[in-house]
Design a protein that fits this description.
The protein has 560 residues and is α+β, with helices and mostly antiparallel strands. The chain has helices spanning 6-17, 21-32, 36-50, 119-134, 177-196, 251-255, 261-277, 287-296, 302-305, 311-320, 332-344, 358-377, 493-503, 512-528, and strands at residues 74-75, 79-87, 91-98, 105-111, 143-148, 154-159, 163-165, 199-200, 209-212, 217-220, 227-228, 388-396, 398-399, 402-403, 408-410, 421-427, 432-440, 449-453, 460-461, 467-473, 479-488, 532-536, 541-545, 550-559. The strands form six sheets. A six-stranded antiparallel β-sheet has the order 1-2-3-4-6-5, covered by helices on one side. Strands 12, 15, 16, 20, 22 and 23 form a six-stranded antiparallel β-sheet that branches.
């Protein structure tokens, strides 16, 4: 198996595995996109897994005496497994007690049984262990033990980080700047140490930065796809395959070019942008769209979303987001240190007011209270200007499958022609959370309902920061393309739960109970919320408004 194809094979294989057999052939053909070697490898892997006599069906060693789920067992005669923390197609992660160190918790990662006989999978697992073994830093999760189960599955024991991911700390409008500076001052040296040990993380994101024990002490985790230079385990599939988490991938990751420390610095710049603004610099729904956005540069500067952000801090973040790696900082410690210092320029202490006369303080207090009562009484008399969002279509006329005429902007309130293509753009006047779903009127099965945004991670969007869909085609008989649009001032847990399900499918499809729950939620909330949609011809934009912190609407684009 060519190493350069391994990451792509793995991704397509697992997505195909999650589909009904009747849908796999069409999915594989589309996902492999005309690469016969890639398609052959995926199909052979699926055949091997499904065949009773295949390499994945008949293991070399006996497996019946080791359970799939290791909860309740003891690993290595030392680690008592308490519960499963996560489970993916590649590995399972458990929380365990170390019997040699009372009251000490550890995390144990075990290679999945389905990959136990796959040489490349075992090599990838060993490279992750090698990467972590090279790194000895207080702000990076450390390896304390390794071993192999009786059924030949390798495992690695790591320190247990009690706390929450950075993702849970990022709020609409951004985090406290002094706190951001504290976090960056820890990440910089840790990441620099990794790079000095010839390890590039390749998957930096808020979910992989842990905040320990209710403090701002930071620990980097999950080196599962790290690039290891001069590996003793074997060659790493570092280029030729686009691998990572889409919103945080550098331009060179997307294009499969050489990965260097500058790639991690780019990812950190995305995280920094998100920490100070509450939104990401780009809101793409596909790799190709993200690549185009990165090439064009950041349209919404951080200070547009966070006016009190020091100009120097904005300058550093934008340099970190440079499309060309040579224009970025080359050392993570320098990027994080300079940004932390710049952020502190925006932290000010309010002057004391103890010299004010008492009567003036009392009068001021009464005035504030009176104003609050006044605002409370008037709160329902008119819709808040912040409780709104807008959308428009960019329509490309088509003739015999080829575009003609220039694309034009439409507010969605017209009847389009079959075969024409369109792209949906949604914006919010204030930082918020957006969820976009496409419900195809032409489909009667589950795959007709797809999650367009977010493709992964958080649904947060900055003020006036556009979210663009992929290009759709008006097809089939006369009807409509239906889009559910949800705007909220806070995350919607019912819809956040659908993100991981959508990520399992290349088109973001929702299936099974997840689909049922999402549709029930959307229909119920739409009936409950009296949102109005106005289609304006002057700016070719539709605006949705309501007196609520949650807006739900069904946008229907008719065609003939």
């Amino acid at each position: 198996m060519p190493p350069s194809y391994w990451d792509s094979i793995q991704e397509i294989f697992h997505k195909a595995l999650a589909l009904p057999e009747s849908e796999r052939n069409a999915f594989i053909a589309k996902a492999c996109d005309g690469h016969p070697d890639l398609e052959r490898e995926v199909r052979e892997l699926l055949a091997a897994r499904n065949s009773p006599g295949g390499v994945l069906g008949v293991p070399v060693t006996r497996l019946d005496f080791v359970p799939d789920n290791l909860v309740g067992t003891t690993i290595g005669g030392r680690y008592r497994v308490n519960k499963e923390l996560s489970c993916t197609a590649m590995s399972q992660v458990y929380l365990a007690n170390d019997s040699r160190l009372p009251d000490t918790h550890v995390v144990i990662k075990v290679l999945s049984r389905v990959w136990v006989q796959d040489g490349d999978a075992r090599q990838r697992f060993k490279r992750e262990v090698e990467a972590l073994s090279r790194i000895k830093h207080a702000n990076v999760v450390n390896v304390s033990d390794t071993g192999q189960l009786a059924d030949d599955r390798p495992y690695v024991v790591m320190s247990y980080i009690e706390g929450e991911a950075l993702r849970t700390q990022i709020r609409t409008g951004g985090m406290d700047l002094e706190r951001v500076a504290s976090i960056l001052k820890q990440i910089g040296p840790a990441l620099n140490h990794c790079h000095e040990q010839k390890v590039v993380h390749r998957d930096l994101k808020p979910e992989n930065i842990m905040m320990t024990g209710g403090t701002d002490s930071v620990v980097l985790i999950d080196f599962g796809i790290a690039k290891v230079r001069d590996s003793l385990v074997g060659p790493s599939t570092v280029n030729a395959a686009s691998i990572g988490t889409l919103p945080y991938m550098s331009p060179e990751q997307l294009s499969g070019e050489e990965i260097t420390a500058a790639s991690d610095i780019y990812s950190m710049a995305v995280i920094a942008y998100e920490m100070v603004t509450g939104a990401r610099p780009f809101n793409a729904t596909s790799a190709s769209q993200l690549a185009d956005m990165q090439r064009a540069g950041v349209k919404v500067k951080p200070r547009a979303l966070r006016p009190n952000l020091p100009p120097r801090a904005q300058e550093i973040i934008l340099r970190g987001l440079s499309f060309k790696r040579e224009h970025r900082y080359q050392r993570a410690s320098q990027f994080c240190s300079e940004l932390a210092s710049a952020l502190k320029e925006g932290v000010t202490t309010e002057p004391a007011v103890t010299h004010w006369p008492k009567y003036l303080m009392i009068a001021l207090g009464l005035a504030v209270i009176s104003f609050g009562v006044y605002k409370y009484i008037l709160r329902d008399r008119k819709p808040s200007p912040n409780r709104s969002f807008s959308y428009f279509l960019t329509v490309q006329r088509m003739h015999d499958g080829q575009p003609y005429e220039e694309p034009y902007k439409s507010n969605g309130d017209e009847t389009y022609t079959k075969g024409d293509q369109f792209q949906l753009t949604v914006t919010t006047p204030v930082p918020a959370y957006l969820y976009i779903f496409n419900e195809s009127a032409l489909q009667t099965h589950d795959a007709g309902f797809t999650m367009i945004y977010p493709a992964s991670g958080s649904a947060s969007v900055g003020a006036n920061q556009p979210v663009q869909s992929k290009w759709f085609t008006f097809s089939g008989s006369e009807g409509a393309e239906n889009f559910w649009l949800v705007w909220s001032t806070s995350p919607v847990s019912e819809l956040d739960a659908a993100i991981s399900e959508a990520a399992k499918h290349s088109d973001g499809a929702l299936t099974g109970q997840t689909l049922v729950a999402v549709k029930q939620y959307l229909i119920a909330r739409k009936a409950e919320i009296d949102a109005t949609t106005n289609h304006y011809n002057a700016n070719k934009t539709a605006v949705v408004r309501a007196r609520r912190d949650l807006l739900v609407t069904l946008a229907q684009f008719k065609h003939r």
